[in-house]
Amino acid sequence: MTRARQDRLLGLLARDGDWATAATLADALGVTPRSIRSYVTAVNARVATGIAIESGPQGYRAGPDASAALRSNGSMDASTPRDRLHLLVRALLDSPDGVDVFETADSLHVSSATLDADLARVRGLLGGTELTLERSASRARLRGTEMAQRRLLSRLAHDEMDAGSFDLEALRRTLGDASVGARAFGPFKTELAAELGALGYFVNEYGIADVVMHIAIAADRVAQHRALDADAGEASPANAEVAAILRRLVGRDLGVELGSAELQHLASLVLTRVVAPGATAPKMHVRERLDPEVEGAVRDIVAEAASEFLVDIVHDDFILRLALHVQNLRLRAREQAWSRNPLTRSLKSTYPMIFEVAVFIANGLHERLGIPLLDDEIAYIAMHVGGRLERSRRADQLLTATIVCPGYYELHELLRSSVDRSLGQAIEVTGVETRVDPDWSSIDTDLVLTTIDPGAAVPGDRIVRIQPFLTDGDIERVQAAAGRIRRGRRLARLRAELERYFEPSAFVRGLDASGEDDIIRRLGSMLVERGVIDDDYVERAIQREHLSSTAFTDALAVPHALGMTATRTAIAVGIADPSIPWGEGRVQVVALVAFSETDREAFQTVFEQLVEVFSERESVQRIVRRGTDFAAFLDELVAVVDG
Fold first, then answer.
1. Are 238 and 214 in contact (CB under 8 A)?
2. Sign of the alpha-carbon torsion through 157, 68, 72, 582
3. From which residue to which does any coiled coil extend (predicted)?
């Protein structure tokens, strides 16, 4: 039984909030239902006086103490391989002269052979850190710069966190219970954010905890006489301004005096991870700070993305803000100082189209500016894209509505005013009927909000009874009806598109865990045989998969190539029962989608709505269990779409 799988089980339940059967959870984790029951027992044992996971006739769901159970890791005691690995790395980092292998094995209560295996795992952990592990007789030591060692500490701390979140206990487990850095949270973070805001900066709350962690690591290392020895050089005015704040707060709250090299480094992290210039920021005009090369690259790539995906993102303010973010990203890439994003997983599963646009932009940045791709950094680009699209939503996306309210003084006017005020984000009132006997058949708006009974002769879910004086219950019913209409229309479009694009002869049941590349090639070969795509498209789909996993839900992967070069749009489907590994998770359905340029407008419908259908666990299980061949698969999928 592994701690990681227990945490993943708890994370799945906490994220969804609904009941899930043991069989469904077992599929998601790639274990047996019996293991799920064991995991539930172990997770509940973490909160002796509470309930982390509830059990019932419908299965399991997250309990009131789920969050506490996720955080209740306690102190590391070498009882698990991961804890032992972290303890060993921390010992190596704390000992410039290295550690004695046999003494360390005794202290961890393991054999020397086990510790040798752990040291091999340490070597695997050092990839990309510019550190090396040296072994001489009975001593092992790390070789590398102080900055590289801090990066390793940062990696350990992130490994202790769930989905990019951060907490004090994770930091203590990484740095040690007596660490100076363990006191870096609370007032320090609040005061830092307040002082940065007072300078006119917008503060990125998603990144500030990550930077405070680096400040905590720096304070801890300096307290151990392990300061940076690099030449500080001349700081920019903005860097000097932030450094002065850090010097004062760290000295007052943590009791540590940081040197100029430390302060410049940390101020640079703040400026590239946490803040963006606000309207009142002194001497911080965005264009003045931008490298023309970065701005030009971002402008070109955004234009390409807008054309490729038919999205409205070519706006100067969006391009400038994104370019500033990319410039900071390039600086972070040079120092391997990546920012974690706690919203990465939810952005990918909830807004797959927006995330796909971000992947396209990130790939262009990689090709033009040489910036590496990480899912967390792609998620920040997705947040920029989503913010721009939210601002540019067209008014015609609102549902239209007619109010039926027989005239009595200004009653109908008051009702319309109330509807506009309470529901203006969801519907647009285009007409008001004040007759007591309106011609119901002539009302053609999406919704009819009526204060009188339309009678049995007027069918349809678009009729919503409301009171002359709008109540909270009325608002909820209208919102629910609007939601049903939108979902119905989306799924109706999806059904038509899926029936058109699924390739009946490109269906495989019984995918094995041969790896993403082999599965993409297997599904792609069937579309190649039918002349839909060529081998180059298949290889580009594999390249796209390497950029960022296309497992957009806990059950579905949608591999595809960047670039809509298929002769026609077609979908090849593979089903795995039980689930197979894909990226960092597991899936049961793989839909290789080949898009053609002539069907560019269908991309968003197929892509987003397919992900929506397979985000519901019960629907997935129904489709997977009953979809024994293509005809049965399509029947079940259509049945799920139709509700």
1. no
2. negative
3. none
Two tokens, residue 90: 């921390």
At residue 520, the 3 state secondary structure works out as helix
Residues of the chain above pLDDT 70, percent: 88
CB neighbour list of residue 38: distance below 8 Å, 6 or more residues apart: 1
CA distance 561 to 532: 13
Structure confidence by residue, pLDDT tens digits, 254-282: 888 888 888 888 888 888 877 766 544 44
Q: How confident is the model at residue 163 (pLDDT cuts 50, 70, 90)?
A: very low
Q: What is the pLDDT of residues 434-491, one digit of tens each?
A: 988 888 888 889 999 999 988 765 667 789 999 999 999 999 999 999 988 887 787 7
Ordered structural domains, the chain, with CATH: 3-71 (1.10.10.10), 81-175 (1.10.10), 180-277 (1.10.1790), 287-338+347-369 (no CATH), 396-470 (3.40.50), 492-642 (3.40.930.10)
Query: Which residues, in sequence order, are bridge partners of residue 593?
Result: 571
What is d(CA 470, CA 466) in angstroms, rounded to the nearest whole number? 7
- The overall average pLDDT reported for the chain is 83
Residue 99 token pair? 């550690």
- Please identify which residue in the block is written with the tokens 């997705």: 382
For residues 298 and 126, give the distance between their C-alpha atoms in angstroms, rounded to a whole number.
33
In 3D space, the residue among 345, 378, 338 whose CA is nearest the CA of residue 361 turns out to be 378
DSSP letter string, 613-637: HTTSHHHHHHHHHH-SSHHHHHHHH
What are the tokens at 266? Answer: 């940390």
- Mean pLDDT throughout 372-388? 88
- Report helix, strand or coil for 76: coil
